[in-house]
Amino acid sequence: MSFASSPRTTFANDPAPHPAVYSGQTPLAVDVLPEIRAYRGELTVSLPLRHAGARVVTLRYEGLGGAGLPAVFVAGGISAHRHVGSSAAFTEAGWWEAQVGSGRALDPTRHRIVAFDWLGSDGSLDAVIDPADQADAVAAVLDALDIERVHAFIGCSYGAMVGLQFAARHGGRLDRLVAISGAHRAHPFSSAWRALQRRAVALGALQCDETHGLALARQLAILSYRTPEEFADRFEAAQVVDGRVRVAAEDYLDHCGALYTTRTSPVAFQRLSESIDLQALEPARIDTPTTVVAVEQDRLVPVEDSLALAQGLRGATRVEVLSSRYGHDAFLKEEAAIAAVLTQALQEAATSHTPIAIEAAA
């Protein structure tokens, strides 16, 4: 792995005394908050991609917390990005705002929080991307930031898959792994679901309407993330509107699709969706202490796969099984339960591998 250019980083501490706007647009006085170092940067690096050969790529990262604090790398699903939580320097809400911030489970006054934009997420890399490639990209970012060892890698969904790859490929740099709703393989049923989503994008391209195809793919994805129980609670029966039957959830799905197309290119979606389906890893390659989090109602990552993962890992392992009507999206919606898991994982290392500790949470 070789760097094509030096990393460029912009550092920003909390500005002095004026109100800062945080998530929910609630004004908070800066002088009642601890000063939090926030920074963004990018580096250009040559990565040997598993299926596409060496490519020169640009990696964009963001961090919260001082350089001397234990480092925690955070990664979400394929639509997640480097901005996990707000700060006075970068005030927009992060994708995991509920978990990242002063006094929260991922507290930048106690840990150095690092995240990056997925390799290929800007649509500039039209090539097959393996989850192992993402793990190597994470290692490149850590190298650029002079982070030799990571206290924890916390991955959700695709991020959990990449976290497992990181533990297998760079385990000597990792103290512990938290894998939430992600496993060592892509389940064949889930892969079939994603293949249809990619076909929707391709069909849109044939009609010279890639945006509409991408929106439809996102709507199909939303149905796989959530559950029948949630939709039964949220939406009423279909109605006849202007001579056609309209299902109550259509407005919600239309909104999700339209919003997604404003921030994601069809190429990025296709390549990252494909990458999920390339996940294939022998759990026995991993001896890092690991917390595996499964959700009973997750239709993309069945509990059985999470248990098989845990049984195959060689390191100390804890399994947490949650119940949530939000299914695969529980890591975004079940704020208290996920915070408890993260807090425990950061505070305590599992003490044994046999038997595996399995806990169920309501």
Automatic annotation (TrEMBL):
A single MF term (Gene Ontology)? homoserine O-succinyltransferase activity
Claim: Ligase is one of the keywords in the record: no
- Gene3D superfamilies noted in UniProt: alpha/beta hydrolase
Active site residues of this protein: 157 (nucleophile), 298, 328
InterPro entries in the record: AB_hydrolase_1, AB_hydrolase_fold, HAT_MetX-like
Q: What is the name attached to this protein's record?
A: Homoserine O-succinyltransferase
Keywords assigned by UniProt?
Acyltransferase, Transferase
EC number, as in UniProt: 2.3.1.46
Which organism is this entry from? Agrilutibacter terrestris
Domain (AB hydrolase-1) ranges = 94-333
Has keyword Transferase?
A: yes
What the entry lists under SUPFAM superfamilies is as follows: alpha/beta-Hydrolases
One GO BP on record is: methionine biosynthetic process
